[in-house]
Specification:
It is built from four helices and four strands. The chain has 140 residues and is mostly helical. It has a single domain, classed as Non-ribosomal Peptide Synthetase Peptidyl Carrier Protein, Chain A (Orthogonal Bundle), CATH 1.10.1200. It starts with a helix and ends with a helix. The model has no long low-confidence stretch (mean pLDDT 83).
């Protein structure tokens, strides 16, 4: 069983998948930072100094009950808007990568098709004439 696991884990596609997953996690973090810190502040400013991350609909205010702090209950739709924008940017980036990959793949296939084919083998008549020519050269 250990040998099977070693063979499985050493296959190239498992390693490629792990690298892809790590890259995706950090790419997502970069896009989230882009949305939260670069895209949303100017949009909030244009909409009258609104901080989208603080937009929420409070259902129940925070309170202190019997000396215990009870947090507020709220629907944070501003964070949801940020998440949707983050998703759209990630989806666009993935779309562009896949589109570029498909274009590169198509170009490679076209180059294979355009590669010159080997010249056709000589016909039986050409082979026979070549042999006759070579025999005549030997007699001289």
């Amino acid at each position: 069983m250990l040998k099977e696991f070693k063979e499985f884990i050493s296959k190239g596609n498992v390693l490629e998948m792990a690298v892809g997953l790590i890259m995706a996690v950090y790419f997502g973090a970069i896009v989230k930072s882009l949305v939260d810190h670069i895209i949303m502040p100017p949009i909030g400013l244009l909409l009258g100094n609104v901080d989208f991350s603080s937009l929420k609909a409070v259902i129940k205010e925070a309170a202190v009950v019997n000396g215990v702090d009870v947090p507020e209950v709220a629907i944070s739709y501003g964070l949801f808007i940020n998440t949707i924008i983050t998703f759209l940017i990630v989806a666009l980036a993935i779309f562009l990568v896949v589109k570029g990959y498909n274009k590169m793949k198509d170009n490679m296939e076209k180059k294979k098709e355009e590669a010159p084919a080997e010249p056709p083998a000589p016909s039986k008549e050409e082979v026979l004439l070549t042999e006759i020519r070579d025999l005549l050269k030997q007699k001289k």
